[in-house]
Design the sequence.
DNA sequence: CCTGAAAACAGACCCCC
DNA sequence: GGGGGTCTGTTTTCAGG
């Protein structure tokens, strides 16, 4: 069993400023971040380490342009189901996690049970995904919303 | 005026493997990436530079745990509007881009015109956001879907 | 286009304040 | 807990095959 790091860390202004800088560009040098937040190398490094250990931030990643990979279609999928047994749910979650085209999956409150964000090459590829999904698990109703334009997409949280 | 980098770059297998490694952890050393993809430092570095220059990948970032920042509520907002003049649209887009709690905004095909993903501290904070938004621009119908559980959330695209 | 070495650089850890 | 220096490893560059 993996020990989930769940320490309740208090973040002060310096921590938050560092997070902001790292979210903007994680490739910056410590000196540069230190300059931006009005501090010096060592404190910045100590806080980064602290926040990493506490699980406040995950590993750094690069954001890749989907179009460069030929992923030109983005769907939001609204799912209603009639099944709510743990058994069904486990199977459904496993299916979602296994599919790399699913970028986000949330269980919702209210009439709609789940929402997915799915990135695929085109409408045809979405249909392949959809058929595969409903063959794995029973769902009651599925609505796919096709994105025409990505107005905004950011991984940065307001710090 | 910024020159939008829009070169159509062909990515071969080595490029894609490098992207996969960087998406998993952008903090790895070149040697380690080179080892993973079965190549050597310099070629890996050349391709990274090429892809950066071509805009295939953006700057590296860190993924921050929303709960650590006290952002415990996530809403998907479905918006219908009756207004479709460019003037209204410009104002709407500007409002979305200006609000840091909006993590994603897409213009959709079909009955629903827009979908937003909004991260806030709690339901109260969402209402503040919502009231502010509808006071800035007229919308016809708004449905907010509250996320109960984030089943999956990844920034990594299938490469 | 890759290999290997050399130079510039930044990250990790120290002691002192 | 922050300031500054130092050592180590990494990034970046470049000559050569």
Sequence:
């Amino acid at each position: 069993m993996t020990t989930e790091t769940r320490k309740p860390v208090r973040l002060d202004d310096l921590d938050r400023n560092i997070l902001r800088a790292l979210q903007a560009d994680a490739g910056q040098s410590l000196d540069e971040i230190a300059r931006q937040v009005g501090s010096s190398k060592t404190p910045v490094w100590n806080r980064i380490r602290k926040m990493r250990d506490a699980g406040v931030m995950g590993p750094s990643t690069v954001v890749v342009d989907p179009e460069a990979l030929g992923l030109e279609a983005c769907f939001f999928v609204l799912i209603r189901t009639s099944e709510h047994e743990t058994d069904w749910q486990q199977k459904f979650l496993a299916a979602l996690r296994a599919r790399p085209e699913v970028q986000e999956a949330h269980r919702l409150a209210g009439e709609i049970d789940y929402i997915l964000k799915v990135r695929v090459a085109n409408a045809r590829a979405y249909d392949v995904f959809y058929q595969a999904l409903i063959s794995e698990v029973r769902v009651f109703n599925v609505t796919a919303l096709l994105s025409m334009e990505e107005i905004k997409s950011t991984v940065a949280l307001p710090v």
In short: The first strand of chain A starts at residue 57 and ends at 64.
